[in-house]
Design goal:
With 279 residues, this protein is an alpha/beta fold. The chain has one domain: Spore Coat Polysaccharide Biosynthesis Protein SpsA, Chain A (Alpha-Beta Complex), CATH 3.90.550. Helix content is 46%, strand content 14%. Strands 1, 2, 3, 4, 5, 6, 7 and 8 form an eight-stranded mixed β-sheet that branches. Helix 7 packs parallel to helix 10. The longest helix has 24 residues.
């Protein structure tokens, strides 16, 4: 279902042909989904309402990664487009949904009702003005009580973001924010490959290395509405992010440690040069 400016009631629903549908869509809202029946309807309705109120012609795409809890039926009932992605993983789901999208701009966000899809117009405004990647910033927009574990809020996310900024000179202050917008043509130049949670990090790193125009907007993070634990695994996903940083920054993985060891060896050699030392 394409969302756009309100039509006169007498005209009734208008079904666009595939060609008309593709040319009419400005914004595609892509949500990865794996058994999100508890919160999916709320997220879809918020996204559709935001598009309608801002008079943005858009679509909502649910990139389903094998749901068995009725999520697919909910999405179809609400008029969202369901894209079935068989390869498991957060990155795979998003890549499948983005590949199927029709919009010039893509807004991605989780289907757990933790992000405010009412912020969509803020992202679109920046994209229309020329930004190629617009990141949400939860630390500037606000993190509600209980929305993020203290370990993530005060250590994990800030520490990994600082490392990313140090390694790559990125302007992004919240590497892990799951709500972001980007031009589809700019996304295609990134050739993203990671299939898991590090997909979001790869996008920021490659966008920085390719010198895309990156901007930020404040966004709010709320406690998600699910009764089950999140898919995120703190230590596993944190290590995967750090490993990715190192693999994409040979200076920090090889050159700087090599220089430090060389200097330490030279200093030790000079210390031993004059005479034998007793430890």
């Amino acid at each position: 279902m394409v969302i756009g400016p309100t039509k006169p009631a007498s005209l009734g629903p208008i079904e666009a042909s595939p060609l008309q549908h593709r040319s009419a869509v400005e914004v595609s809202v892509v949500m990865p989904c794996l058994n999100e029946a508890e919160t999916l309807e709320t997220c879809i309705r918020k996204a559709q309402q935001a598009l309608k109120q801002a008079q943005i012609t858009g679509e909502v795409i649910i990139a389903d990664n094998g749901s068995t809890d009725g999520s697919i039926e909910i999405a179809e009932r609400l008029g969202a487009r369901v894209v079935h992605v068989s390869s498991k993983g957060y990155g795979n789901a998003l890549m499948g949904g983005i590949a199927a999208s029709s919009g010039t701009f893509i807004i991605m966000g989780d289907a757990d009702d933790s992000y405010d899809f009412g912020d969509i117009p803020k992202f679109v405004t920046r994209l229309r003005a020329g930004a190629q990647l617009v990141m949400g910033n939860r630390f500037r927009g606000g993190i509600k009580p209980g929305a993020m574990p203290p370990l993530h809020q005060y250590f994990g996310n800030p520490a990994l973001t600082r490392i990313g900024r140090l390694f790559f000179g990125s302007p992004v202050h919240d590497f892990y924010c799951g709500m972001r917008g980007f031009r589809k043509d700019a996304y295609l130049t990134l050739s993203l490959r990671t299939t898991g949670m590090e997909f979001a990090t790869e996008m920021v790193v490659k966008a920085t290395l390719l010198k895309l125009n990156i901007e930020e907007v404040p966004t709010t993070l709320s406690p998600d509405g699910r009764s089950r634990p999140p898919h995120l695994r703190t230590w596993r996903d944190g290590w995967r992010t750090l490993r990715f940083f190192l693999l994409y920054s040979p200076r920090w993985l090889f050159f700087y440690p090599g220089v430090a060891l060389m200097c330490a060896g030279a200093a030790l050699g000079l210390y031993l040069l004059g005479s034998p030392r007793t430890l």
